[in-house]
């Protein structure tokens, strides 16, 4: 490897670390400003040179919103989990629970009184779940387990208040 390419690689690595630290600080700032949020992330071994830490971003605007994220990664060879919860409105509830690695969970709520839950187990292959709710009083639950390489996306628009709850279980 040429010395100039090694320097370029180190610069790229430092840029990635700086970006992740910035995202982490933004997430912590958003959590500190949120109504009632809880984030718990676990890894068995931390190695920042591979940038494999779990990432969680929670954005809340409104009153009495609740968000909870629990992420785990049981082995150092597994990739990180990523979660993103966005809430704009009042009295929304969102929860994401992810185990093992390489899972992605996204909950997007705009409106009032929504409830959304994602639970994913997985192994070393990716599971992905996306929930998008608009209007009011939507209720969606997604539960996945197993080997992965699966993605589920649910969009619910409820402006009448009479939508039925949506539950998806895969194993």
TrEMBL record:
InterPro entries: Curlin_rpt. Transmembrane segments: none annotated. Pfam families: Curlin_rpt. Keywords: Signal. Coiled coil: none annotated. One of its GO terms (cellular component) is pilus. Belongs to the CsgA/CsgB family. This is Curlin subunit CsgB.
């Amino acid at each position: 490897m040429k010395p100039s390419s090694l320097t370029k690689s180190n610069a790229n690595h430092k840029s990635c670390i700086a970006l992740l630290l910035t995202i982490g600080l933004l997430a912590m700032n958003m959590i500190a400003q949120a109504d009632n949020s809880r984030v718990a992330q676990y890894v068995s071994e931390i190695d920042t040179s591979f940038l494999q830490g779990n990432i969680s971003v929670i954005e809340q605007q409104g009153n009495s919103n609740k968000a909870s994220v629990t992420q785990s990664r049981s082995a150092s060879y597994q990739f990180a989990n990523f979660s993103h919860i966005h809430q704009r409105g009042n009295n929304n509830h969102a929860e994401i629970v992810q185990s093992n690695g390489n899972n992605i969970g996204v909950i997007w709520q705009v409106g009032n009184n929504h409830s959304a839950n994602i639970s994913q187990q997985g192994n070393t292959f990716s599971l992905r779940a996306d929930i998008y709710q608009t209007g009011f009083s939507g209720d969606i639950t997604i539960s996945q387990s197993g080997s992965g390489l699966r993605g589920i996306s649910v969009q619910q628009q409820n402006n009448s208040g009479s939508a039925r709850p949506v539950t998806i279980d895969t194993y």
